[in-house]
């Protein structure tokens, strides 16, 4: 792995990620997240692995989540790898795409969304 890959976020792997993340890697995974929002709040973090700002925001958010104990399910979407799913989120949930972005779902609908340094657990 190159030095630039580490800086730009390519070194992030599921093995090194916090264990609270559920990964959205298919349409079915997105459907599960939307369905689960009927039981508890769901937060979907859309991350660009090529963006230094996105990486910084992700790390700050992960630290915040680990200090909170709310009843929230956290989903992670690599929007470069799964851009069609990101597009579906935009159209189905009526939330304009941004990166990085956190979208909060309840009862199958987006009830809040934030981007860049505005992403905090207090918005959930």
Principal-axis shape: globular
CATH architecture: 3-Layer(aba) Sandwich
CATH superfamily: Glutaredoxin
Helix count equals 4
Q: How much is the average pLDDT?
A: 89
**End-to-end Cα distance:** 35 Å
CATH topology grouping: Glutaredoxin
- How many distinct folded domains? 1
Total E-strand runs: 5
What structural class should be given to the helix and strand makeup? Answer: alpha/beta
Global Rg: 14 Å
Helicity range: 25-40%
Largest sheet: 5 strands, mixed
Question: Order of strands across the biggest sheet?
Answer: 1-3-2-4-5
> Which class in CATH terms?
Alpha Beta
**Unreliable runs:** 1-14
Give the percentage of residues in beta strands.
15-25%
Protein name: Bacillithiol system redox-active protein YtxJ
Organism: Kaistella pullorum
Description:
The chain is α/β, with parallel strands linked by helices. The chain has a single domain, classed as Glutaredoxin, CATH 3.40.30.10. Helices cover 35% and strands 24% of the residues. It has four helices and five strands; from the N terminus they run αβαβαβαββ. The chain has a five-stranded mixed sheet with strand order 1-3-2-4-5, with helices on both faces. A hairpin with a 2-residue loop joins β4 and β5. The termini are far apart. 27% of the residues are buried. The N terminus is likely disordered. This is Bacillithiol system redox-active protein YtxJ. It holds the Pfam family BrxC. It comes from Kaistella pullorum.
């Amino acid at each position: 792995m190159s030095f630039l890959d580490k800086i730009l976020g390519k070194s992030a792997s599921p093995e090194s990620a916090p264990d609270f993340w559920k990964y959205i890697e298919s349409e079915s995974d997105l459907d599960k997240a939307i369905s689960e929002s009927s039981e508890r709040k769901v937060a979907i973090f859309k991350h660009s692995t090529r963006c230094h700002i996105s990486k910084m925001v992700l790390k700050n958010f992960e630290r915040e989540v680990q200090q909170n104990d709310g009843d929230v399910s956290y989903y992670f979407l690599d929007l470069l790898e799964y851009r069609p799913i990101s597009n579906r989120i935009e159209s189905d949930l009526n939330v304009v795409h941004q990166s990085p972005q956190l979208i909060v779902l309840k009862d199958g609908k987006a009830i809040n969304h934030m981007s860049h340094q505005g992403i905090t657990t207090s918005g959930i």
